Amino acid sequence: MSRKYHVETVPFTNRAHLVARSHQAVRLDAELYFIDFKNKHATVILPKDHARSVRVNRILSRIVDAICPRLASRTHEPLDWAARLDWEAVVLRDDGIGAWCWADAGKILVHTGTLDHFTADEEIAVILAHERPEVTMYILVYVDDIILVSSSVAATNRLVLALSSDFAVKDLGKLHYFLGLEVTYPHDGLALSQQKYSQDLLRCAGMLECKAATTPMSSTETISATDGILLSADGATDYRSLVGALQYLTITRPDISYEVNRVCQYLHAPREPHLTAVKRILRYVRSTATYGLHLRPAPSGVLSAFSDADWAGNPDDR
């Protein structure tokens, strides 16, 4: 079973407040912190003598203590007593700060006993795992959304009850939408698609009404790093943005993985033929926006893969 949970607004709700927009973490004394929401939320501080408040603030204290020196070293600004952070921007930065913060927050929750018997994945920072012969559970955390996959309904209920003792957790029911991925449940498995994401991508590219293509790339035309005129600075930025968005689409669209990989090779200096190739992929996406992955139970755990090579088809490395 897989269910989706949302963390309510409390002083520290798993990783929800680590990505809240423009909040302020302030040291009240040597051991206690609170979060004051000034943009979207009212101030939410539990009384100091409240058992949950003390425990939650201690967890938050450890996280802020760990994060402030790291941020100070990156920003070259002193963060001795307070840190005003825009975590929604920080966690999306690709300089390592965001991933480190998420992984550290997850490990702290494990070590404090809230997620006892769970282990934090070293490779994928936002996944916590509980793997035992009798039950298997995985927790995926992104901002204030929690996806819980479990082989046991009873174990799920016990875990949610344990989390609720420290944090306000709301059950949103069966998973249907998460980070642009749409989830449906046909009778013979699980279906994943990104139809809405595809439409949004086409809209952003101004190609919502473009002529659809039946293939993502021409089999007769070749592109190279030196063909055509270089794009302008703004054009190159738009090119990289479109290619990055297409990369995310390949999560449920392996049929465009090869073509997206090809246009990724020209991110450093994109040219007009490269942009034309990107638009061809988008035209194909328009005609296949409903495509996705259909996952079915398999009798064996054997993973089959297929590959092909075209050593002569790439003029840049042949």
Automatic annotation (TrEMBL):
Record-level Gene Ontology MF annotations: metal ion binding; metalloendopeptidase activity
Coiled coil spans: none
- Residues of the Reverse transcriptase Ty1/copia-type domain: 117-218
Which superkingdom is the protein from? Eukaryota
Instruction: Give the GO biological process terms.
Output: proteolysis
**Could you tell me what this protein is called?**
Reverse transcriptase Ty1/copia-type domain-containing protein
Protein species of origin: Lolium multiflorum
